[in-house]
Write a structure and sequence with these properties.
Blueprint (H helix, E strand, L loop, with lengths): L11 E5 L4 H17 L4 E7 L14 E5 L7 H12 L5 E4 L4 H9 L4 E5 L14 E3 L6 H6 L20 H14 L6 E4 L11 H15 L3 E4 L3 H12 L5 E3 L5 H10 L2 E5 L2 H8 L4 E5 L4 H4 L7 E4 L7 H5 L4 H4 L3 H15 L2
Helix pairs in contact: 1-9, 5-8, 6-7, 6-13
Length: 346
């Protein structure tokens, strides 16, 4: 596939991926590949909080434009976004989300070349708003997203996330561990998930923490976000027989720093799992409704435990019975942890 018109040497490019946390992480290699191909380009990204916090300070980006989660319902925000994007004089807009709201942001930019998904990943009316449609051939969302830049001459680039990290975030992670009394190698257990259909019972996470403590002398730190997840995390800690500690509240950037300290990250399919994988922490991913081959922790060194999956629309997966996650037994997860820890010589 060729570019419809020649690009300038230093093109001005917009990426649109508004949410969610894991999906924004999965699109980071897009920015890295564009920066490597066009070192002098201007690269901007439209996103929403909280995922946008992971993009701020990213070395591949010149600007992060943050919109409200319901920006499309506000005429004032729509006009403001259009004005801001048009002022950038963009050459290319890439819709890495494939929804009406992301396609409209790309269209509002006025970029003459607007690239999006042309297959079933281009949902709602998104396909009508782009000038170049990509029919993807790969399964995993990271690889599929990278196909969007093939019209720019970038084919199968190396996958690098380059999650930003600052000294203050490293220091915050060190203080957190010191406050928990953890000064040795550790595992991280993530309690929650974005959908109820992705939750694994907390007492089973507690059993995994007991196994890691007894078999590997590896303490677990249980991370969480929000009141519901804190309740799950407290149940995990209470059932771990002293082998798990409850983390204090963390920002996404602090969680990334904490993940860099860990030997192992255990979680269901959710943003923190993909954040851990992006910073290089070996992960055990527990998967129910969403097929792991499409959305598992990316890269070598991870292990996925999945007993059943749904090969249907996202709405069906969101409403799925918890039986898919409850089919995952504790011994299978412990064996996956053992596989990773033996490999890395823990």
């Amino acid at each position: 596939m060729s570019t419809p018109f020649p690009l300038p040497e230093n093109p001005r490019i917009l990426i649109v991926r508004l949410s969610a946390v894991g999906d924004v992480i999965h699109a980071m290699p897009l920015a890295v590949a564009l920066r490597e191909r066009f070192p002098g380009a201007y690269l901007a990204w439209v996103s929403a909080y909280p995922a946008a916090t992971l993009l701020e300070g990213h070395e591949a980006l010149d600007e992060v434009i943050v919109v409200g989660r319901r920006w499309l319902r506000s005429p004032r925000e729509i006009v403001g976004l259009r004005r801001r994007l048009r002022a950038l004089r963009l050459d290319v807009a890439i819709d890495a989300q494939g929804l009406t709201k992301s396609a409209l942001a790309a269209w509002l930019s006025g970029a003459p070349l607007r690239i999006g998904f042309g297959d079933h990943w281009g949902r709602e009316i998104s396909r009508w708003l782009h000038t170049e449609l990509i029919h993807t051939k790969t399964r995993h969302t990271v690889d599929r997203t990278l196909e969007l830049i093939e019209p720019l001459g970038i084919v199968r680039p190396p996958v690098r996330f380059q999650v930003p990290m600052t000294d203050s975030q490293r220091e915050a992670a060190d203080r957190m561990l010191a406050g928990l009394g953890v000064d040795a190698p550790l595992a991280i257990i993530n309690a929650g998930a974005g959908w109820p259909s992705k939750l694994w019972p907390p007492d089973r996470f507690g059993a995994v923490a007991r196994h890691l403590g007894r078999q590997w002398r590896l303490p677990s730190v249980v991370v969480w976000a929000g009141g519901e997840e804190r309740a799950l995390a407290e149940t995990i800690v209470a059932s771990a027989d002293g082998h798990a500690r409850l983390a204090p509240p963390t920002t996404l950037r602090e969680l990334a720093a904490l993940c860099r300290r860990a030997r192992l990250f255990v979680s269901s399919d959710t943003g923190p799992l993909h954040l851990a994988a992006a910073v290089g922490t070996p992960c055990v991913g527990l998967y129910g409704p969403w097929p792991a081959e499409e959305n598992g922790p990316y890269g070598p060194g991870h292990v996925v435990v999945q007993k059943m999956a749904i090969y249907g629309p996202s709405s069906q997966r969101r409403r799925a019975s918890r039986a898919l996650m409850e089919a995952i037994d504790v011994p299978s997860v412990c064996e996956a942890c053992d596989e990773i820890l033996r490999r890395i010589g823990a």
